[in-house]
Amino acid sequence: MKPRNFSSSGGEWLRGTGPESDIVISSRIRLARNVDGYSFVSRMNSESRETLEVYLHQRIRDLAGKLGLEYRNLKEASMLDRLLLMERHLISREHVNMDGDRGVAYTAEEMVSVMTNEEDHLRLQVLRSGLQLDETWELVNDIDNRLAELVPYSFHSRLGFLTACPTNVGTGMRVSVMFHLPALVLTKQIQKVFQAVSKIHLAVRGLYGEGTMAFGDFYQISNQVTLGKSEEEIIQGFKSLVPRIIVYERKVRDRMIEDNRTRLKDTVSRAFGILQNAQTISSEETMDLLSKVRLGVNLGLLSDIRISRVNELFILTQPAHLQKLEGKDLDPQDRDVVRAQFLRKHLQN
Amino acid sequence: MKPRNFSSSGGEWLRGTGPESDIVISSRIRLARNVDGYSFVSRMNSESRETLEVYLHQRIRDLAGKLGLEYRNLKEASMLDRLLLMERHLISREHVNMDGDRGVAYTAEEMVSVMTNEEDHLRLQVLRSGLQLDETWELVNDIDNRLAELVPYSFHSRLGFLTACPTNVGTGMRVSVMFHLPALVLTKQIQKVFQAVSKIHLAVRGLYGEGTMAFGDFYQISNQVTLGKSEEEIIQGFKSLVPRIIVYERKVRDRMIEDNRTRLKDTVSRAFGILQNAQTISSEETMDLLSKVRLGVNLGLLSDIRISRVNELFILTQPAHLQKLEGKDLDPQDRDVVRAQFLRKHLQN
Lengths: 349, 349
Hints:
The structure is a homodimer.
Chain A: E1 24-33, H1 46-67, E2 70-73, H2 79-87, H3 93-97, E3 103-106, E4 112-116, E5 122-129, H4 133-150, E6 155-156, E7 160-161, E8 173-180, H5 182-186, H6 190-199, E9 202-205, E10 218-223, H7 231-277, H8 283-298, H9 307-316, H10 319-326, H11 332-347
Antiparallel strand pairs in A: 1-5, 1-8, 2-3, 3-4, 4-5, 6-7, 8-10, 9-10
């Protein structure tokens, strides 16, 4: 399969058009599923993995027509292509680095992805722009139901879906809401959010999930409990928490504008000026500055750029995307120069 | 006298057209003179000061036609106008703040200025762009000779010219060369210059002379000895020192370019980007960033702005100039906002 061209546009979730998208970047739900009669992936040898991958690929192909899914075998894909898929949130970091036959199917607008032979045999994901928990759940649930007709899932009548890691047993569901919380970070109030979130047994993570750093003031909030609660109950938990975080961030933004509009405009304008002029820039600094620009656009303090463009730049300036753009591997130093070139080109007046 | 409009252009010395003007901003010589038969200024009461000021004003008027000098009485001038003259290096800080009748005459291109009733009765100054010690000396010497025909100077056959402060006795001459040494500052080698300079009894000062801080990587080097050496010998000392400092700064600039052109271009481009976008900015930060921009233009790393414009901005963004521009007193916070507006306007693409 010819890889899609990732250099010019981003997935649906980057459009920034969903509800509350000034603060909620995306809503994501993934379901972990395993196929009855097969060992978990970590216990399979390479032949069994290949057999299962072929089996799952065929089943997914039967779904593909209606959903517009295209399947790629990742064993054959280059490291760069795998990293590219990770940067777009289509596969996990583990899926990039593991060995053996495995693959991913995803739709053109990148809203749906299905990984095979990741930690579990199947990981179904729906990722949408803004706060759309019901819509996201409906879609992933629909795909899950259709796939269940083609694949016999490992299911235990008392425990629910069986998964490789006990923390996923039950619903096998992880809901992740990605927030952009620059005002809470700037005013050093983000810790209060962490405390509130951990009290109700949700986890806060960075941009690329478990074990990744929070760059660019992006924070993912995910459920930790998958057992003893229905999918609807888990989603309900988010529906009561998320609006409170949104209100908090928005209140702090408003207060910052009231207290010192000039200073805030100064911060976001300088960030824009540096992005427009730097000759070398790291990924971390880029995200930090783009975060301030994003805040500025959302507060009407900057008008030179659309929010969808800012969202895209977060992804397109990641290492694998830059290397894809240049058509070759780059060491970090060269990457920083190419990143600065790319930003200047896309942000010039 | 109607004050000249200072908001649009700077003095001749700001044009940056003189020899070695990438590193030597200006050459300045001032002569301290006192009038025979009068006490020193600090010992005069206000009536005597008035009498002397009228006397000197008349003598200067006799010179004015040929030189194009215009005279202003500073007792009548507002604080803002006095600060404006200081920011343009036409009068000293002491002359701004002292009381009583005193004045300044200066030419349209601001190359020549004559202060009356400063620390000494007369202070003659010539200030030229770049390294022009001989030309500067010729001109100030010529004015001194002409004035000597109209005013009897206090002169002692053994000591030379008598001055209020013993450190000026003899020639009454201070030579000051203003350097822009950003590469030596960035590479932390400026201390070596200080050491070399102090060994030969010259002093290093900031942008506005004695007791002022060095902002924007500007350093003035001045003689401390006025007694026991002729004017020509003092100038000769500068003529052997200055080229060595120029070579040193230039060598370090070249090495920086060789070692990491991208990093240097990054530094100067970011400085330009911040100046183009800031919404509030202090005088100190402005000078620091303009200094980097100046370095960038001189090294061919930035092409969006002429060096004369950069030189002007150093002066036009000073507090008094900004307030003159706005036509009113501004507190420091408002000044920082007006300064940023001014910079954006003059640096926009």
